[in-house]
Amino acid sequence: MSAYHRRNRRPYGRRKVCRFCADSNLKIDYKDPKLLNHFITERGKIIPRRISGNCARHQRQITLAIKRARNIALLPYTTVVR
């Protein structure tokens, strides 16, 4: 294998499993900020699907729940950075 191919190889990691598909008891609810905090950064941004490991369906539900929780002030839109 040439040096070019060795340098440009991507490391293979384990595929993340959607925690909501794995555990049917978990429900996505906008009134549960403790659960939703796992899916936002310390700056208040929504964590993307490729990082969180959610499936597309549950990622859409998470995004909607976060936006609803922000609207009624259960979650912050942003944080103050100094």
General form: flat
Proportion in helices: 40-55%
Element order, helices and strands?
HHHHH
Mean pLDDT: 88
CATH superfamily heading of the domain at 16-71: Ribosomal protein S18
**What is the fold named in CATH at topology level of the domain at 16-71?**
30s Ribosomal Protein S18
Count of DSSP helices? 5
End-to-end gap: 49 Å
* Strand count: 0
Q: Based on the structure given, which CATH architecture of the domain at 16-71 is correct?
A: Irregular
User: Strand percentage, roughly?
Assistant: under 5%
Uncertain runs = none
Can you tell me the CATH class of the domain at 16-71? Few Secondary Structures
Describe the main β-sheet briefly.
none
Class inferred from helices and paired strands: mainly alpha
Rg over C-alpha atoms, rounded to the nearest angstrom: 17 Å
Structure overview:
The chain is mainly alpha-helical and 82 residues long. It has a domain at 16-71: 30s Ribosomal Protein S18. The chain is built from five helices and no strands. The protein has helices at 3-7, 19-22, 33-36, 49-52, 56-71. The longest helix is centred in the last third of the chain and has 16 residues, at 56-71. The protein is flat and about 55 Å long.
